[in-house]
Write a structure and sequence with these properties.
single chain, alpha+beta, Double Stranded RNA Binding Domain, 2 helices, about 30% strand, elongated
Length: about 100
């Protein structure tokens, strides 16, 4: 699996390592994830607002998720929850479609 992180907000490496660690845990749980691209940017001056755009590469259409927060920890927590929810939903949808295809053929 390919992991790409673009850090346009110039956040510290400890957050980048945390993000990679979380992505590896997600990858172990969801084998159908082909790649994940993360773009972290900063908007505004005071208070700074961070934006995370995640592009999930799966079979079929890619999933793009966007989250905003003033705190990097809460931003990434929201993002990870969204990623897991969408991957779980996609996995279930594929399982149902495979079941339908198997029973109609």
């Amino acid at each position: 699996m390919q992991i790409v992180i673009r850090n346009q907000a110039k956040i510290s490496n400890k957050y980048i390592r945390f993000i990679k660690w979380k992505i590896r845990k997600i990858k172990d749980k969801f084998k159908h994830l082909l790649y994940l691209k993360v773009l972290i940017s900063k908007e505004g001056q005071k208070p700074s607002r961070y934006k995370a755009v995640l592009k999930l590469g799966i079979k079929g259409h890619d999933i793009i998720l966007t989250n905003y927060s003033e705190n990097l920890t809460s931003l990434w927590s929201k993002s990870v929850n969204d990623v897991q929810r969408y991957l779980r939903k996609n996995k279930e949808r594929n399982r149902i479609n495979a079941f339908r295809y198997k029973n109609t053929g």
